[in-house]
Amino acid sequence: MPQILKTSKIIRVAIAAVAGTLLLVVFEGITYAVIIPNLVEANRVSYDGLYREHPALVPLLLFNLLWATLLACFFEYWADIRTFSRGAAAGAVIMGVIVIGINLGFIAFFNMLENVFLIVPVKVAFMAITGAVTGGVIAVILGWGNRKFVQQINRIN
Description:
By secondary structure, the protein is mainly α. It has helices at 3-35, 37-42, 57-79, 84-109, 116-143, 147-156. The two termini are 32 Å apart.
């Protein structure tokens, strides 16, 4: 494979990962700061100093960059996902499973949640929606310039 094609693939993955990171941060902010903050607060164990009033920005961005990069690499190198619908389906499943796994770890090792049967499904549902939008956008970015993608756009126009 010529070096130009390899570089453009790497650049597309990087752009998709950055775009995915921004979407994850925005959707998580909306979810946890606007839509369900009272539900989360009411269903977690808390004591002074345990939770930050606002998340630390650099670790939050890196956390989401890692997940978005995982999606972008998976879509690009293993699953050949290039359309919004396939990216949305894969993103919803992958991010939903990740949140289930993280929360099962919290349940196994920490006493942080009061009502796991309420809060975990809500968190999984919101992250599946976030993952769907993020996965769809990542897939579209990866498909940009793809011959099939260009043909589809030309048919629409």
